[in-house]
Amino acid sequence: MADFRGVFLLGVVLFVACSVTGVRGTKFDDVIQASWASDHLIYDGELLKLKLDNFSGAGFASKNKYLYGKATAEVKLVEGDSAGTVTAFYMASDGVNHNEFDYEFLGNTTGEPYLVQTNIYVNGIGNKEQRMDLWFDPTADFHAYSILWNPRQVVFLVDDTPIRVYANHEESGVVFPRDQPMGVYSSIWNADDWATQGGRVKTDWSHAPFVATYREVRIDGCGWGAGEELAAAVKRCSESEWGKEGRYWWKKKDMEALSVHQSHQLLWARAKHLVYDYCADTARFPVPPAECKA
Ligand SMILES: *[C@@H]1O[C@H](CO)[C@@H](O)[C@H](O)[C@H]1NC(C)=O
Ligand SMILES: *[C@@H]1O[C@H](CO)[C@@H](O)[C@H](O)[C@H]1NC(C)=O
């Protein structure tokens, strides 16, 4: 009898211990892990927080790499004074000729609007910045920021509204990012040399810590399995027919381009909220880059 009770109590203790770690990790631990300053990455109930103070910023990275798919972070950006800070959410491959799809949220002084800068690197070359403000206050609540990547297009979506499309124009000689598995990353850091009002407004450390809060990180992609040859993964993830497997929904025929409704949303977002587009920056690019002409 006494032995039984001991086993029962041990069971309860284990159950409680597992539940506690379960609450801490479940949603996030399956998908991501700390990649920079794990002491500045804080689990708070169902939420994950990245903290920037005068000692360090913080970041996380996906556990897997992906070849095509959709990555989404539901984030509430730094409240109040966020001037000088940048919170980034991006996908990137490794190496000098890497590909990268970036969201960079540029903080501002209290009450002034955040700017969302997007950029795209293809074969190691970036310089494709666009900047937008938002149609809501991104510090007041959680919003979903997504990157969709398939062999025909890269789409940046905010709450499922497309704000930018980088379409495949290989037929016009424009290189399209493919064949390099990408990780999914997020971080917060001090960038007061350039981020806010061109670097004129510096980070006010008396307002630290600056905290970006995540409610969810979802990645639905073709994972590059451990031990799999890269060539085999590229073939499996890119050469299969559109959505043939069903589970690769991001490659279905209707994901090749925006729907009519999405095209209207994109036009609306850009007409109302675009504040900078490298394609229109003739001082910087007297000859428009090829992808801008395509
Ligand atoms: C960081 O900020 C804290 C609190 O304001 C302060 O006590 C500390 O001296 C600062 N450390 C550095 C390295 O600036
Ligand atoms: C910050 O606010 C100023 C004033 O409204 C605005 O000009 C600027 O674009 C905003 N964003 C950044 C990142 O500087």
Automatic annotation (TrEMBL):
Identify the keywords attached in UniProt to this record, alphabetized: Apoplast, Cell wall, Cell wall biogenesis/degradation, Disulfide bond, Glycosidase, Hydrolase, Secreted, Signal, Transferase
Query: What InterPro entries does its record include?
Result: Beta-glucanase-like, Beta-glucanase/XTH, Beta_glucanase, ConA-like_dom_sf, XET_C, XTH
Please state the Enzyme Commission number of this protein. Answer: 2.4.1.207
Q: What are the glycosylated positions?
A: N108
Q: What subcellular compartments does it reside in?
A: Secreted, Cell wall; Secreted, Extracellular space, Apoplast
Annotated catalytic residues = E100 (nucleophile), E104 (proton donor)
Keyword Cell membrane, does the record have it? no
Q: Does the keyword Methyltransferase apply?
A: no
Q: Name one Pfam family in it.
A: Glyco_hydro_16
Q: SUPFAM superfamilies of this UniProt entry?
A: Concanavalin A-like lectins/glucanases
Query: GO biological process: what's one of them?
Result: cell wall organization
Q: Which residues form the GH16 domain?
A: 2-214
Q: How is it modified after translation?
A: Contains at least one intrachain disulfide bond essential for its enzymatic activity.
Residues annotated as signal peptide? 1-25
Which molecular function GO terms apply here?
A: hydrolase activity, hydrolyzing O-glycosyl compounds; xyloglucan:xyloglucosyl transferase activity
GO CC aspect terms: apoplast
Record's function text: Catalyzes xyloglucan endohydrolysis (XEH) and/or endotransglycosylation (XET). Cleaves and religates xyloglucan polymers, an essential constituent of the primary cell wall, and thereby participates in cell wall construction of growing tissues.
Protein name from the UniProt record: Xyloglucan endotransglucosylase/hydrolase
From which organism does this entry originate?
Phoenix dactylifera (Date palm)
